[in-house]
Amino acid sequence: MLGFSFYLTDPLDDKAENYFMNMSENGFKLVFTSAHIPEEDHSQTSSKILQLYELTQKYNLQLMIDTDRDSMKYLPKNIFPGSGLRLDDGFSPIDISELSQNIPLALNASTLNKQLYNELVKQNFNQANVQAWHNYYPRPETGLDAAWLKQKNEWLHSIGFKTQAFIPGDMNLRGPLHDGLPTLESQRHQNLLASYIELKKLATDTVVIGDPALSTDMQSALHDYVQRKMIKLHLESFSDESVKSVICNSIMENRPDVARDVIRVNGSRQIIKDSVIDTTPISSKIRSPGSVTVDNSDYGRYEGELQIVKTELPEDPKVNVIAQVVQSDLCLLNSIGSSRLFYFSDQEEKD
Questions:
Q1: What pLDDT is attached to residue 43?
Q2: Based on the domain organization, do 238 and 166 belong to the same domain?
Q3: Where is the 6-phospho-N-acetylmuramidase N-terminal domain (predicted)?
């Protein structure tokens, strides 16, 4: 599942509603907010949460509210059971069990251990209504280690909990540090689609955007991967405009037999033959990772084969370099495995 964040200090205006609508259309199912961040003024918290709840209902989104015991008094009663609570400080196993009977809950995954789990079982908590959520970490160097997260998530799965983690946004990063809100430190400045793919491999069920904004370009990239298992790659440095018109925005497929050094586009020789792309040899150059190449007319029966280079390769006069995957997307190349779908997008058209 995909989720995103909205914070109570931000205005619930037409721009916010348009963002909620777009996120819902792109497959996001959940909105996270916090009712207890110390820097925030609580004078308008109750009315703002009610407004937020109404907006999430309009776009079929579940609202998950981070709260401690002291902040519970700010939560309007009529937003339950349609909303859930991520419980922070001050809740006993008895409290958790009572709340779990009627309200979806999330517990702190980092502090959920065998002792607390056994106490919850003794209190007959409704585990079907309880998930385990990790924190985000605003301060650089304090995010979690990936190996530890995987081990923790696998243990949580073994005792019946679904898991969650955060990845940053890619615009308007939340203050006061403005350095991203990831769960994993390694993902603080990483490509967001690569971060999502990694978290799924680390036994994470729900991924939430921690920061308050996500570009429409990344919304579509995440949607295409989650809904269609298709990877979006941004290109620059086209050899000419005809290349851009042929290879951008067309769905491509890696061959089922995965090559070590390159991604080989299935059926590309016929595609290029039928296109306006010129396969006359041009000046050869070193093929750096992310180089998009086409085998030229000197390569015989391979003429027209379209490839993406995964590791640096030497010059080859039989191979034309026609475009380049942008630096921030290079980490996605290893995710394009057997028969994986992908498509190219012009970096200049990115919002």
A1: 66
A2: no
A3: 2-222
Question: Could you tell me which residues are beta bridge partners of residue 265?
Answer: 254
Last residue of a domain, one of 229, 263, 278: 229
Q: What are phi and psi of 284, to 5 degrees?
A: -80, 155
Non-local (6+) Cβ contacts of 303 within 8 A are: 269, 272, 273, 279, 295, 296, 297
Across the chain, which distance is largest between two alpha carbons, in Å?
75
Main-chain phi, psi angles of 97, to 5 degrees: -60, -45
Q: What is the pLDDT of residue 38?
A: 59
Give the list of residues 6+ apart from residue 37 with CB closer than 8 angstroms, or none: 7
Sheet holding 341-346, edge to edge: 252-253, 341-346, 230-236, 319-325, 291-295, 306-309, 262-264
The answer to whether the pTM exceeds 0.90 is yes
Interval 77-121: pLDDT, tens: 899 988 999 998 889 999 999 999 999 999 999 999 999 999 999
- In whole angstroms, what is the distance from residue 116 CA to residue 220 CA? 40
Alpha carbon distance 177, 64 (integer Å): 24
Q: Are residues 116 and 32 in the same domain?
A: yes
Do 60 and 137 belong together in one domain?
A: yes
264 and 211 share one domain: no
Structural domains counted in the chain: 2
Q: Are strands 252-253 and 341-346 parallel, antiparallel or unpaired?
A: antiparallel
Answer yes or no: do 270 and 315 share one domain.
yes
Give the residue among 108, 51, 109 at the shortest CA–CA distance from 78: 51
Residue where a domain terminates, one of 213, 229, 245: 229
Q: Are residues 300 and 324 in the same domain?
A: yes
CA gap 288, 310 in Å, rounded: 8
Question: How far is CA 218 from its chain centroid?
Answer: 8
3-state SS, residue 4:
strand
Tell me how far apart the alpha carbons of residues 224 and 88 are, in angstroms, rounded to a whole number.
34
Residue owning tokens 């996120």: 23
Residue 16: what pLDDT? 98
C-beta of residue 69 within 8 angstroms of C-beta of residue 90: yes
